[in-house]
Amino acid sequence: xxxxxxxxxxxxxxxxxxxxxxxxxxxxxxxxxxxxxxxxxxxxxxxxxxxxxxxxxxxxxxxxxxxxxxxxxxxxxxxxxxxxxxxxxxxxxxxxxxxxxxxxxxxxxxxxxxxxxxxxxxxxxxxxxxxxxxxxxxxxxxxxxxxxxxxxxxxxxxxxxxxxxxxxxxxxxxxxxxxxxxxxxxxxxxxxxxxxxxxxxxxxxxxxxxxxxxxxxxxxxxxxxxxxxxxxxxxxxxxxxxxxxxxxxxxxxxxxxxxxxxxxxxxxxxxxxxxxxxxxxxxxxxxxxxxxxxxxxxxxxxxxxxxxxxxxxxxxxxxxxxxxxxxxxxxxxxxxxxxxxxxxxxxxxxxxxxxxxxxxxxxxxxxxxxxxxxxxxxxxxxxxxxxxxxxxxxxxxxxxxxxxxxxxxxxxxxxx
Length: 416
Fold this sequence. Notes:
Layout: H1 2-30, E1 35-38, E2 45-54, E3 57-66, E4 69-75, E5 79-80, E6 85-87, E7 98-119, E8 127-133, E9 136-138, E10 141-143, E11 151-156, E12 161-171, E13 179-191, H2 197-202, E14 209-214, E15 216-217, E16 223-225, H3 233-239, E17 244-253, E18 256-261, E19 271-274, E20 279-280, E21 283-287, E22 296-298, E23 304-309, E24 313-314, E25 321-324, E26 330-331, E27 339-340, E28 344-349, H4 351-357, E29 362-364, E30 370-372, E31 387-389, E32 394-395, E33 404-408, E34 411-415
Parallel strand pairs: 13-14, 18-29
Antiparallel strand pairs: 1-13, 2-3, 3-4, 4-7, 5-6, 6-13, 7-11, 7-12, 7-13, 8-9, 8-12, 10-11, 14-21, 15-20, 16-19, 17-18, 17-19, 22-23, 23-28, 24-27, 25-26, 25-28, 29-30, 31-32, 31-33, 33-34
């Protein structure tokens, strides 16, 4: 009797454990931060396939699983799934006029959707793309693809939402053609002005992410930078326009923090970077979030540290936490304005170092260039007014600003 109870309890625990694993797996798939859903050979599975005949036309219905997500599919032709997901043929009467895919996204910040598609019609201009999210339509933008005739990418930009998605590809006129889905890329966003911690934690180690950073990096000054995924040298050169990139060595000479040149970006590590051209809202493809929390790089005494952040962060105003600001100076934040945006880094210096000598700190970028901290009491009183560039970077003075539009106390300021 006792053995029977033990056996029953063991089976119940196994069943419960399998159920919990199932729930967790479904949660991970449902909270996908951004994914590439491939419909190429061996990367998808067709489920629940069925056909209906209406007015001598074959309508196919099925569910397709790719990258742990289920898409409901409807089309008005037969589905051929030998090597890639294809609807219809060029045979008379067997052409597909539309292909409709449906799914639902939650716990994500969809920024844009890219549908990589193809058809037997060489002129892809006749292939129309439609997107609805929660029944709201979004306009398409077709991107040319000259590598293979009949293939193209259809972009739906400025989406800024999530929910029940419908993607439809169709011809305005009935054609003897097939329609191919190669992949669907869902691009999501990390925003410098929002708390990104939950989204990053929920999507750690998910493959094939496509992530857009909502921030601007200027060519006119050094930008601090920190993201939760690796960026390879080739991508850095292409996205940041052959930038200068530096990392803190953990070494300090006197009161100078020594930085060195590097060519790659590691997840969670803080950097300073200066692109050769302005970079606005860059997108990174096929990346994996591996660092749930940003890192702090300190010297051996831990008196000096370079601290990465993913989300907006308030700094201490006692001189122990400094940010890189206007004209490549280090600044102490004001009591009423002490928050810096995310995907950046700041400098932390212990109290015993910061009080008497805070005007002597430097960042050595190379043998000939350094970034100094100016005397705090020389900052003009009027700079306590909030003045920002259009990309959200705060400047501390209107003196010697280059021509352009700025935001001062919530109003536009024109510098000629």
